[in-house]
Structure formats: structure tokens, C-alpha cells
Write a structure and sequence with these properties.
- With about 450 residues, the protein is of the alpha/beta class.
- The protein folds into 4 domains: about 130 residues, Rossmann fold (3-Layer(aba) Sandwich), CATH 3.40.50; about 70 residues, Helicase, Ruva Protein, domain 3; about 90 residues, Zinc Finger, Delta Prime, domain 3 (Up-down Bundle), CATH 1.20.272.10; about 90 residues, DNA polymerase III clamp loader subunits, C-terminal domain (post-AAA+ oligomerization domain-like).
- The chain contains 20 helices and 7 strands.
- A 5-stranded parallel sheet has the order 2-3-4-1-5.
- α11 runs parallel beside α13, α14 packs parallel to α16 and α16 packs parallel to α18.
């Protein structure tokens, strides 16, 4: 078995040039050769049923680079014996799309052969360009396979989505990358036993691949070339590091170090050591840590350790998470570093954390009670008869925008959960909060 990659393959299953890149030579030729994406390729999966039944279909393949969108399109075409035509949204427009559709009509009419039209980076097509596909897809003149790295529900027009099956591809698991490397080392289409791979070099390849099969094979090929040039029969870690120009990071994403380094990152941010925080961020990034995991930790830290001492910290952390999802890696490490620097240098307060913890503890201890009548919903028929909302005072009617009235249940009157510090923006908040509570509790 091999894996999925985003590189073109000769149509019709033609022999691959032995001088072609390793990733191209090791490309799957059938669904059964594919490693990974088993959620799409299992025995009863919709995709396998569609392919094996050779039914007309249109697909939108959604996933990060290197997960096999282009390759899967080729495999489907070979499995269904259809003509395969590839367009890139970067250099194609309505004219090129119409030419392919016209050719597909002729092929279907005179040869009875259907056409698979693969459009890479379909999110770059304008609405007009996407609309030009609709009639051909609707009439099944072409089976469209559209690939995108962006959420298709935001980047592909609704009429096209409604006519297509949307399939989300996932990064390869580490075990899948290991399998891929072993196949490439021994297959006559790959390195054919010319070199072996040391265990630590293999682990390093898996780390730097980050779930990207093409990246793993490209790095392996580079390491093999360096080993052969040096007259060595094994790709060891120093040789591989030199070949791919990326130092190994001692980091097990499934073991204790995963949690140790993540903990050190957050504690360095909490301790305001920006340099240590950047170091641990770099270790996580270089180890191939899921950037979404890092971003989630930063969003949590922005509220847990900074809170209202710098309310903009949370905005920066959320923006970093959005940016990573939008641009991907490796460039995504820049917004992550931006957020780390902001959080580490911001004034710190755990007042929000303490307030939430105490309020949850009280709720769990049974300190609740009925909502005061004045705060209850009064918008439905009969609410006034129940006394709902009758004593409510509208704050905007007051010159200060605040009036004295009871908001918490009786059991919690006078309870202060949020106790701001004097650090950062919480200093002014503390002063204002004292005045707010004095007005609210004036009659108590």
C-alpha cells in the first residue's frame, strides 16, 4: 500500500517515468493501495460504493495539503475507466471549463465514455466560474471532483455543493506515514532496497511530515540521495538532517514530553517569560505538533491567566487560531508567535478564573434559588398575571445607566465572585466595579 499525494499522475495508468519524483512513483493505482482516509474508503463507505458501482458522481474533496485530493481523483478515474481531465483554478477560467464540457459531450455521445473533471483549488474560482459547471454536473456530462483546502461551505457556491458529495480528508496518522516510508524503501517503484532507514531518522521523518504524505516521501528521497552520494547504505539521522535542513526535535507527541512541553509553554506565559515561551512554541512547531492544539491552549491561557488585566489578549489568541486555520503551516507559526508574545508580555490576572470557579462551586453546592420576579420573561401571554417583570427597572432610563435592584437569587445576594486585581486594565475596572456594586446594593 501507498498513500495519497497532491501531484499529477499520468492518466490511464501509464508507466511512471523512473526519473519522476518518489512521491509520483509511489502513487496509488487503486483504492486498495491507499493508506489513510479509511473513513472514506472503508468497505461500506459511500465513496467506495460509488466507485465500485461506477455510478455518476460529483465530489468536493476538502482537506489540508498533502492529504491526497489530486491522487484520489486520479484513482477514482482509473477505477471507473473514465477519461480524466485536470484544470487548475489558478490558470483556468470559464473558457477552459466550457471547452472541457464540450469535449466531454463528444466523448459521451460518440464513445460512450464519461469524463472526470478534476478542478484543483476550486475555492479560487469566482461564483461565475463555478456556476458555469452547474448544467454539466446536473446533466452528468462530467463527474466533477473539486479539491479545496478551504471550508467548501464558505468557498463553493450552494448549487454546486447540493449536487456534490462533500468529503473531508484528514492528515495521515503517524502509523500511515510509517507504512508509506516502508513501502517506498522496498518497492520496485520506489527505492527498491537501495538504502535502509535508521529508527531515529524514521521518527524524524514522521515528525517533519506532519501528516503530509508527499512531504514525507520528498524528505525520504532527499535523504536517500545524500546517503548514496556519501557511499552509505543507511539513511541515519545526521544525514537526513543535512538533507532536509531541519534539526531533529526530541519530542514524542503521544508521550509525556507532549504534555511537559505544552505545560512549560503555558507556565512560561503565565510567568511572563516571553523568551522561554517562544522556545517552547518553537519546539512544539518543529516537532509537528497540531497547531490547533497550540492555538486552543493559547485561547485558554488568555482568559485563565490574563483575563481582564488585558482584554485584548483573548482577541489576539482567537485571531491567531483563526489565522492558523486560514493559512495553515508552516506560515501559521507567525500568528502563533504573535499571540505568545502578546500573552507573555501582558499583565496577568486570574480573577476571571477564580470568579468562574467559585460561582460553579456554589451552583454545585445548591446555592441557586428562583430567579427574582422582576427578571423573569414577561413577553408571553399571561406573564404579567404571574407577576413576571412587574418590578423590573430599565437601566437605560437612569442618567447613570444603572439602577438599584436585585439581580441574583436571594441565596446569593451580596456574593462577590469577581475580585479584580490592580494590574493592567483591571485597576480601573476595580474602581468602577466598587461604584457599580454600591449603586446596585443601595437599598439592601
Amino acid at each position: 500500500m501507498t498513500s495519497l499525494f497532491d501531484e499529477p499522475e499520468p492518466s490511464g495508468g501509464a508507466a511512471v517515468d523512473p526519473g519522476a519524483p518518489l512521491a509520483v512513483r509511489m502513487r496509488p493505482r487503486s483504492l486498495d493501495e491507499v493508506v489513510g482516509q479509511q473513513h472514506l474508503l472503508g468497505p461500506r463507505s459511500p465513496l467506495r460504493r460509488l466507485v465500485e458501482a461506477d455510478e455518476p458522481m460529483s465530489l468536493v474533496l476538502y482537506g489540508p495539503p498533502g492529504t491526497g485530493k489530486t491522487t484520489l481523483a486520479h484513482v477514482i478515474s482509473l477505477a471507473t475507466k473514465r477519461q480524466f481531465v485536470q484544470l487548475s483554478a489558478l490558470d483556468s477560467g470559464v473558457k477552459e471549463v466550457r471547452a472541457v464540457i464540450a469535449s466531454a459531450k463528444r466523448e459521451l455521445t460518440y464513445a460512450g465514455r464519461r469524463t472526470v473533471l478534476f478542478i484543483d483549488e476550486v475555492h479560487r474560482f469566482s461564483k461565475t466560474q463555478q456556476d458555469s459547471l452547474l448544467s454539466a454536473v446536473e446533466d452528468r456530462i462530467v463527474s466533477l471532483i473539486a479539491a479545496t483546502t478551504e471550508n467548501p461551505f464558505f468557498s463553493v457556491v450552494s448549487p454546486l455543493l447540493s449536487r456534490s458529495l462533500v468529503l473531508a480528508l484528514q492528515p495521515l496518522a503517524d502509523d500511515d506515514v510509517h507504512t508509506l516510508l516502508h513501502r517506498a524503501l522496498t518497492s520496485d517503484r520506489g527505492l527498491d532496497g537501495a538504502v535502509t532507514l535508521s529508527a531515529d531518522a524514521e521518527e524524524h521523518l514522521v515528525r517533519i511530515a506532519g501528516g503530509d504524505g508527499r512531504k514525507a516521501l520528498t524528505a525520504l528521497e532527499s535523504g536517500a540521495g545524500a546517503a548514496v552520494a556519501a557511499g552509505a547504505g543507511e539513511i541515519d539521522l545526521p544525514t537526513l538532517e543535512t538533507a532536509v535542513a531541519q534539526a531533529a526535535v526530541r519530542y514524542d507527541r503521544q508521550g509525556d514530553q507532549h504534555y511537559d512541553v505544552a505545560s512549560a509553554l503555558i507556565k512560561s506565559i503565565r510567568g511572563s517569560d516571553v523568551d522561554a515561551a517562544l522556545h517552547y512554541l518553537a519546539r512544539m512547531v518543529e516537532a509537528g505538533e497540531d497547531p490547533r492544539f497550540i492555538a486552543r491552549r493559547l485561547v485558554i491561557a488568555a482568559s485563565e491567566d490574563i483575563g481582564m488585566a488585558d482584554p485584548t489578549a483573548l482577541l489576539t489568541a482567537v485571531a491567531a487560531a483563526d489565522a492558523v486555520a486560514f493559512i495553515g503551516m508552516p506560515e501559521g507559526h507567525f500568528p502563533l508567535a504573535h499571540a505568545v508574545v502578546h500573552l507573555a508580555t501582558a499583565p496577568k490576572s486570574n480573577a476571571v478564573t477564580v470568579a468562574m470557579g467559585e460561582s460553579v462551586a456554589d451552583v454545585r453546592a445548591g446555592l441557586a434559588g428562583p430567579v427574582p420576579p422582576g427578571l423573569r420573561d414577561a413577553h408571553y401571554a399571561g406573564a404579567k398575571k404571574l407577576g413576571h417583570g412587574g418590578t423590573y427597572r430599565y437601566p437605560h432610563d437612569s442618567p447613570e445607566g444603572i439602577v438599584a435592584q436585585q439581580y441574583p437569587p436571594d441565596a446569593l445576594v451580596g456574593r462577590d465572585y469577581y475580585r479584580p486585581t490592580q494590574r493592567g486594565a483591571e485597576g480601573p475596572i476595580a474602581a468602577r466595579l466598587a461604584k457599580l456594586r454600591a449603586i446596585l446594593r443601595r437599598t439592601r
